[in-house]
Amino acid sequence: MPSEEATERGSSSGASAVRYAGATKRYPGSAKPAVDELTLEVPAGEICVLVGPSGCGKTTAMRMVNRMVEPSGGDILIGERSVRERSPAQLRREIGYVIQQIGLFPHRTIAQNIGAVPQLLGWKKERTAARATELLALVGLDPDLAERYPAQLSGGQQQRVGVARALAADPLVMLMDEPFGAIDPINRERLQNEFLRLQAEIGKTVLFVTHDIDEAIKMGDRIAIMREGGKVAQYATPAELLMDPADEFVEDFVGADRALKRLALMRVADIDLWEAPLAHVGQATAEVRAKLAGAEVPYPLLVDSDRRPLGWLSERDLAGEQVPARPDSPLGPLLDRDDVMRDALADMLQGGAQYAAVADRQGRIHGVLSVEIISEFLVSPKAKTEERAATERPRD
Amino acid sequence: MTNPSLIAAAGEVGKGFFHERTSESLPCQAKPDEVFCFDWARHHIDRFGTPTLQHIELVVFSVLLGFIVAFALALLAHRRGWLRPPLLAVTGVLYTIPSLAFFFLLLPITGLGRDTAIIVLAAYTLQIIYRNTMLGLANVPDSVKDAARGMGLTERQLLWRVELPLATPEIIAGLRIATVSTVAIATLAVFIGAGGLGTQIYGSGNLTFPTSVIIAGGIGILLAFALDGVLLLAQRLTTPWRRVRPA
Question: Three-state SS string across chain A, please?
Fold first, then answer.
């Protein structure tokens, strides 16, 4: 079971698994519980996204971990310890907390904001200050900002400070409540990417609340889709969720374009590419024509002596005896093996290209991606049967 | 309904200042249409020294006492929400009592003199200071409080490290209003025998000789400006984050 390994890895990197054990929240005077016997395990060092429509109890579920909402039944364990074992204040100092409205202290400098939890824990001043400097660098902010006040920072900068503040005392768990929800789309995308990069470095256990399924798919190692009444409809990896939604609710929530969304989860390297018929400058055109005969790509790709792609050759280029130095058609989009499929497709559509050369890290030709490959992937037999099954299979 | 003790008290109150300036030679009085007599002012400026000091003392102690009481009440009401309406009502009622009546009400208990004046003046500041403190605490953004609790501040730490510092501008604004209005109301302290600038305003003969009233009033205005300035400076020093240029 991977979760055991993860727990071990987690203990060394300062992250703990979070286990909901029948956690329930019932508000007085309301008939239905806000969170209903939630049982869920988040392995240490993973990002678990709680996603669902408003009123599904996802934020309540998250806030029970640091007892901002007191569970009325069941238990939540961080590592092996119940959250009830410590006083709320003590517990919260071990848990990073990031909220949508950021909530920086307006009367404290950036350095003091980041040092808030260390100060509560009684760290020495020098250690707190050094930690603030370190964290500013970690979240990609200029250390000169340390002495500024929050009002002097942009929204994106403030949210980076919010993340830095949550990380200050090296918490076991991070709770993030729609952390990028109030930020414009361009900066949101940037902050998401930055956080994923940061997470690769720090490996915290993160509970991340959002109502945006695309953000969930992007950020989550696992996703818990919640439905009204505080129940989990499905808890799975993003790929599983898109391939095999548990029921109609999940299917609706994930959206009709889930096949397209799967492209966001794949990299170019994950798919079988076509082999390009290669041509070198000065090579005999007859030789190249021979290669073309059995190739999937109908045009030869001109490469240099290091096999770096230069451009596509047309019929006209092959009219002579030898391959010319200047190809007739430009190379068009050059993809990287590590590109996300969705971005690769976007590049191709933007360039109006049917084919795109894919290079490895050294820039050498690795293969060719075509629109045909992508469309075959989207309607692959597996995806097809699944979609049929989803509409035809009687519900049980 | 006549209350003999109150009448006696009124007599007491009047004693000691209505006949203060008796048979001095007042050159300007010969010219009744002259509003301000520089001659007299030059020769008698030193008679305003003690009343001014008394006045400062009255204002500072009243506002200080009012602040301590109102601040404590505000913290109590902040903690226990059900106390808010009754406390607002009580401080509001105090504020509506006419000041002279208030002096007479306290007379049988605290007698003549400075203490009675300070209690009455302090009572008038309660409403403004209490309300502004509550306003300041209410203006602290919920997101800041949520983040503070979420990071593990206890309620006490939240109050002293976050809420009160952020409420400082409103609290000091309340103190400023309270101080300026107390400078004005404190002129009435003379009727309870507490001295102050009122002695130079409500003295006999001032209706036909306004020079003394103008000087005392002028000192009062300067005093109000000066104390207000001190508080403004204190606010600037305690809230440096309010003066930064936003991004």
Answer: CHHHHHHHHHHHHCCCCEEEEEEEECCCCCCCCCEEEEEEEECCCCEEEEECCCCCCHHHHHHCCCCCCCCCEEEEEECCEEHHHCCHHHHHHCEEEEECCCCCCCCCCHHHHHCHHHHHCCCCHHHHHHHHHHHHHHCCCCHHHHHCCHHHCCHHHHHHHHHHHHHCCCCCEEEEECCCCCCCHHHHHHHHHHHHHHHHHHCCEEEEEECCHHHHHHHCCEEEEEECCCEEEEEECHHHHHHCCCCHHHHHHHCCCHHHHHHHHCEHHHCCCECCCEEECCCEHHHHHHHHHCCCCCCCEEECCCCCEEEECCCCHHHCCECCCCCCECCCCEEECCCEHHHHHHHHHHHCCCEEEEECCCCCEEEEEEHHHHHHHHCCHHHHHHHHHHHHCCCC
A193 to chain B, any CB pair closer than 8 A? The answer is no
Measured in angstroms, the CA of B71 and the nearest CA of chain A are apart by 21
In chain B, which residues have their Cβ closer than 8 Å to the Cβ of A59? none
Chain B CB within 8 Å of residue A122 CB: no
Q: ipTM for the complex?
A: 0.76
pLDDT for A393? 37
Shortest Cα distance, chain A CAs vs residue B240, angstroms? 8
Distance from CA of B95 to the nearest CA of A (A): 33
Closest to A92 (Cβ–Cβ): which among B143, B152, B165? B152
Residue of A317 and A205 predicted with greater confidence? A205
Domains of chain A, each with CATH number or no CATH: 2-94+171-265 (3.40.50.300), 270-378 (3.10.580.10)
Q: Does any CB of chain B come closer than 8 Å to the CB of residue A236?
A: no
User: Which chain A residues are closer than 8 Å to B162 by Cβ?
Assistant: 105, 107
Q: For residue A123, what pLDDT is reported?
A: 93
Out of A68, A108, A148, whose CB is closest to B149? A68
Annotated domain spans of chain B: 47-239
Task: Confirm or reject contact between B110 and chain A (CB < 8 A).
Answer: no
- Which residues of chain B make contact with A162, given a CB cutoff of 8 A? 147
Are A103 and B165 within 8 A, CB to CB? no
- The listed range with the strongest mean pLDDT (A176-185, B26-35, B183-192) is A176-185
One CATH from 3.40.630.10, 1.10.10.10, 3.40.50.10710, 1.10.3720.10 for B47-239 = 1.10.3720.10
Q: Quote the pTM value.
A: 0.74
Enumerate the residues of chain A whose CB falls inside 8 A of the CB of residue B147.
Answer: 97, 99, 102-105, 162
pLDDT tens profile B160-191? 999 999 999 999 999 999 999 999 888 888 78
pLDDT (tens digit per residue) in B124-169: 888 899 999 999 999 999 999 999 999 999 999 999 999 999 999 9
pLDDT tens sequence across A205-253: 999 999 999 899 889 999 999 998 889 999 999 888 888 888 889 988 8
